[in-house]
Amino acid sequence: MDDTTQVPDPNIPPEEFDRLAHFPVTFFAIVMGVMGLTLALHAGAPSMPVLKHASSLMLLIGAAIMVATSLVYIAKALRHPSAVAEEWHHPVKLAFFPTISISLLLLATATFPYNEVLAEYLWLAGVVGQGVLTIAVISGWISHRSFQVGHLTPAWFIPAVGNVIVPVLGARMGYIETSWLFFSGGMIFWIVLLTLVMNRLIFHDPIVARLFPTMVILIAPPSVAFLAYVSMTGDVDGVARLLIYAGYIFAALVVAQVPRLAKLPFALSWWALSFPIAALSIASFRFAQLDGSRTHHNIGFILLIVLVLVVAGLIWRTGKAMLRGEICVPE
Hints:
monoatomic cation efflux transmembrane transporter activity; C4-dicarboxylate ABC transporter; Glycosyltransferase; Tellurite_res_ion_channel
């Protein structure tokens, strides 16, 4: 992750300091946050129609950010392949590569109500990318390299989250077995990683400041898993309740960390706040739709308001950091 408190020396010649070489893969987390807001607005639209128009606008913005980010990162890969390789071999940044395929899956899910054919193509591309990146990332984890306990953060959940996103739209399009395949893989690795992460949080040194916002990612796996499970089963049963209430429990743990979060300097890792909140908001709306619970509906709206404020703040702070030249700099 980039430490955005660093400012490049203006006296360094361009040939010695190329911002493109330092364009981080974590930029795709911005796409995830914006697309999460798009889907959350759409989930709340049945009871507030104006949100549908806001969702359509955010979809266009999210798609534009996705295209721009992809083009810049492709340019980085072509011009600075060694910089991409360095990110891939970084013990923390490695887990962020699946944000690329996750962004495609979220874009497909948000596009589905408007163009089902395009959404299916995007989804298929996302599924292939997610499958390849999941195997590649996990293979990297279990390779001959030895990782330190301090390298483990909730960001390692990202590949697992990507797998359980697959069924959210896949089941609706009829890809039932593919959906169960990815759901199973995602759940297995979530359970394994949850054990490792909790051990790291309890028995070892605290997560460094610029990565502490990734704590919010704890909310995402059970929230997305709930959406995936009910998409495949069409019912809110005991398993579904276990998943969504696990999301609420992790959300409560995150709320308890807000005083510490408020004191931290801005970094791109702050975008980790957005998608998990969106996932829990959408899950709450979906629970209310299937079960008729007014309480869950209200929770969904409260989380949506928080999400809008968080994303607005993140966009403002990211733009400010970019204008100050604090992003895409050497660590």
